[in-house]
Design goal:
With 276 residues, the protein is an alpha+beta fold. Strand 4 (131-137) and strand 5 (141-147) form a beta hairpin. The strands form 3 sheets. Strands 7, 8, 9, 10, 11, 12 and 13 form a 7-stranded antiparallel sheet that branches. 18% of the residues lie in helices and 30% in strands. The longest helix is centred in the middle third of the chain and has 14 residues, at 112-125. The protein has helices at 3-12, 39-43, 62-69, 112-125, 190-203; strands spanning 34-35, 88-91, 108-109, 131-137, 141-147, 155-162, 166-167, 179-183, 211-212, 216-219, 223-234, 243-254, 259-271, 274-275.
């Protein structure tokens, strides 16, 4: 399959979980089936614990971009993160509760009972039922920790946005839109706007599987914005190399309306690990 066809498939299948962290070519040091250097080689070229290594990713040479792609690092060390305690996040939506078949809109509410009802409907709609183990409430979301009892390591953090924090009812994942949500906390302060942007990046797939390399935050008269350089990898196959992509996004929060908008561009793509 040609690289262009692979990228078209990724764009057309938003339900596909397609994140390559260490690359299909990551082996125990042998190059079985690999032409040229493998993922272990590229990952070891730079010391990613040195914060200065992260500077100016827009001008990184190809070998540095490859090194990050296979490093296994999820994000810039200062970027927003969460301890998921062995689980994975899932935001309930119109598909998971069965109200829509052609619109994927994440749900929001300010009542625990509505959030729980949606989580329970989604659990019953799944391929198998995950039992409710615990729940919690934060400023941002309601969360229901669910476990598949036959495989206790299968832990879903079923979440519903709090409308008082973030409303995403205007954003359908199956269509293109620059507006990806509305922030409802007032007044809108810089530190909170940056946390919102990075929270949405990590949890709302503002760029599918984009791993953030920077956190350049700024303020203007009308809003706050963060410029984020990012990387993602397209897995290769026999006769095809991995594709290592560098991109740039600008996420903006309007000071008056709270509207969150995004601009995304792909800057370049290079070959990663190649396969025979």
């Amino acid at each position: 399959m040609e690289r262009s066809s692979i990228k078209e498939c990724l764009a057309a299948l938003p339900l596909l979980v397609f994140l390559i962290v260490s690359g299909a070519g990551c082996t125990d040091g042998k190059n079985d089936g690999i032409v040229g250097p493998n993922a272990v080689y590229w990952a070891g070229l730079y010391d990613w614990s040195d914060i200065s290594v992260w500077d100016d990713p827009g001008n990184w040479p190809d070998d540095k971009l490859r090194s990050f792609a296979y490093s296994g690092i999820a994000a810039h060390p200062d970027f927003y993160s969460e301890d998921l305690n062995g689980g994975f996040r899932y935001y309930e939506n119109t598909i998971s509760i069965g109200t829509e078949s052609d619109k994927w809109i994440e749900l929001s509410t300010d009542t625990r009972d509505s959030a729980y009802t949606w989580s329970e409907i989604s659990a019953n709609n799944g391929a198998y039922y995950r039992t409710l183990e615990s729940e919690r409430e934060t400023e941002k979301f309601f969360e229901f920790r669910r476990v598949y009892l036959e495989r206790p390591t299968d832990i879903m953090l079923s979440r519903v946005h709090k409308t008082s924090y973030l409303d995403r009812s205007m954003f359908n994942r199956f269509s293109s839109s620059d507006t990806v949500g509305v922030y409802n906390i007032r007044p809108i302060l810089g530190s909170e706007a940056q946390e919102l942007i990075e929270y949405m990046w990590k949890t709302c797939r503002l760029v599918d599987f984009g791993r953030p390399l920077t956190r350049n935050f700024s303020e203007s008269d009308s809003g706050f914005e963060e410029e984020i350089y990012f990387n993602y990898t397209i897995g290769g196959d026999w006769g095809i190399c991995d594709g290592v992509v560098l991109g740039r996004a600008v996420i903006r929060v309007d000071k008056n309306s709270g509207a969150v908008t995004r601009f995304v561009e792909e800057l370049r793509e290079i070959d990663g690990v190649c396969y025979e």
